[in-house]
Specification:
Layout lengths: L3 H6 L1 H10 L6 H37 L3 H36 L20 E6 L17 H8 L2 E2 H8 L5 E2 L2 H19 L4 E3 L4 E2 L1 H6 L12 E2 L4 E3 L4 H5 L6 E3 L5 E10 L18 E11 L4 H18 L4 E5 L11 E9 L4 E10 L3 H6 L2 E3 L7 E2 L1 E6 L3 H11 L7 E2 L13 E2 L2
Parallel strand pairs: 4-9, 8-14
Antiparallel strand pairs: 1-11, 2-3, 5-7, 6-7, 9-10, 10-16, 11-12, 12-13, 13-16, 14-15, 17-18
């Protein structure tokens, strides 16, 4: 949530940022509700002060034997009490409306974020190739997309997945299921043993308040799965429960940064991607992801952003898959991020750069929603933490990159060296 004081003091700056973000938010309505709220608070405070003074006067009048004047004063105080109750009801409604309007205001982009209306204005920061190439590696045969490889190898069953659950569902089988599991386990082991994260196994269903806290509601309501009977929302990423771990808590500065990693299923309706990536497993309703998450102090969050990006890069480099780091422009930044970088792996069979990780500094945007704060070592008033999240990595999408980059002319797939211990030493996947 954006600081209301910031909106109040910088309305035009916020509106300009909204234009750069290629979105809209009810800023004028927020300002009017804020004005009305402060007006009501002032009126209530004035009436309470008058009631306090009048209540003291009643006692003095009674001691002086001025019973009639005391009774008149009591009646006056009762009328003031009714006015206070009526104003409090108005105030409660105004505060509720104000809060709901604020939930639609996105985070403000960092000043260094490139300005542009859409993904075509994103900036490639760097590109990495396994053997020092200067362009994407070339094959001496026509590389196949992962869905054709999967059919030949029998590692993904699209037909039966659709038969059971409909479009955008599938089943891993045999070596495909094993490879998917190996990737997830390896991501976790590196994250915990080498990158310094603590593994978390969170709930996969949360209350609405948790979704609001993570800034996934109300903006993305239509893209989520919901169980109305139990009031459970199915998470689209482990970022949701990880954001809510320290809701309404005050952490110690000495304990920061806190670094967590979690492997969870993710559920998304994919309504916004109708007609896109309908083949294969790139864009589906159910998938898995290993998520990296950090709580930091405000002054260290951008260093933490670089660190999380480097951790994601480390994984892709060890897999020896070509990738590039792309900085998102304002129009492709998303709702909560102040700065975001994507890692895109090269998919030779599909002939495209495919996003496999998105790393964001959300600053204090989520912390304000969940009221997650910390206190400095030297004391003082609690401050909001900064939170950061990044994919580290999604095994399904990385599996696409592995299959397409490691394919052989006969349709077999070489298993990357780092994954072989997780597959019982297996070096190749054949039909």
């Amino acid at each position: 949530m954006l600081d209301l004081n910031f909106i109040r003091k910088n309305p035009e700056k916020v509106k300009e940022a909204l234009k750069a973000l290629n979105t809209d938010a009810p800023i004028d309505e927020i300002l009017e509700l804020d004005r009305r709220r402060r007006e009501l608070l002032k009126a209530v405070e004035a009436l309470r002060a008058e009631r306090n003074t009048g209540s003291k006067a009643i006692g003095a009048l009674m001691r002086e034997g001025k019973k009639e004047e005391a009774e008149a004063q009591k009646k006056r105080m009762s009328e003031i009490g009714n006015k206070i109750s009526a104003l409090n009801e108005q105030l409660s409604q105004v505060e509720k409306d104000l809060h709901e309007k604020q939930l639609w205001v996105p985070n403000m982009p960092h000043p260094s974020v490139p300005v542009g209306p859409d993904e075509d204005h994103n900036v490639v920061v760097r590109t990495w190739y396994p053997r020092g190439e200067t362009d994407v590696p070339q094959f001496d045969f026509e590389p196949l997309p992962h869905w054709e490889l999967a059919e030949k190898l029998g590692v993904i069953d699209f037909e039966r997945g659709v038969k059971m659950s409909g479009t955008r569902f599938y089943m891993f089988r045999g070596a495909g299921a094993a490879l998917h599991r190996a990737l997830a386990n390896w991501f976790l082991d590196v994250g915990v043993n080498e990158h310094g994260y603590t593994e978390i196994y969170p709930p996969f269903m949360v209350r609405e308040k948790a979704m609001v806290g993570a800034a996934h509601l109300p903006k993305f309501r239509d893209n989520m799965y919901y169980d109305a009977e139990e009031d459970y929302w199915f998470i689209g990423t482990a970022e949701v429960p990880l954001t809510n771990m320290f809701a309404d808590e005050i952490l110690n500065e000495a304990d920061l940064p806190l670094k967590f990693v979690a492997h969870t299923p993710c559920f998304r309706r994919e309504k916004f991607s109708a007609g896109r990536d309908v083949r294969g497993i790139k864009r589906v309703h159910q998938f898995e992801k290993v998520e990296m998450y950090q709580y930091t102090t405000p002054e260290t969050s951008y260093a933490a952003l670089d660190e999380i990006v480097s951790h994601a890069e480390d994984l892709v480099q060890r897999l020896e898959i070509p990738y590039r780091v792309v900085q998102m422009c304002t129009g492709d930044l998303g709702f909560a991020a102040a700065m975001k970088f994507d890692l895109e792996a090269w998919s030779p069979g599909s002939g495209e750069w495919m996003e496999i990780s998105s790393v964001s500094n959300v600053t204090d945007f989520q912390a304000r929603r969940v009221n997650a704060r910390f206190r400095r070592k030297d004391g003082g008033k609690p401050e909001f933490v900064h939170t950061l999240n990044g994919s580290g990595l999604p095994p399904g999408r990385v599996m696409i990159a592995v299959m397409e980059n490691y394919q052989q002319p006969d349709g077999s797939i070489i298993v990357p060296k780092v994954l072989r211990p997780y597959l019982g030493g297996r070096e190749i996947i054949e039909p």
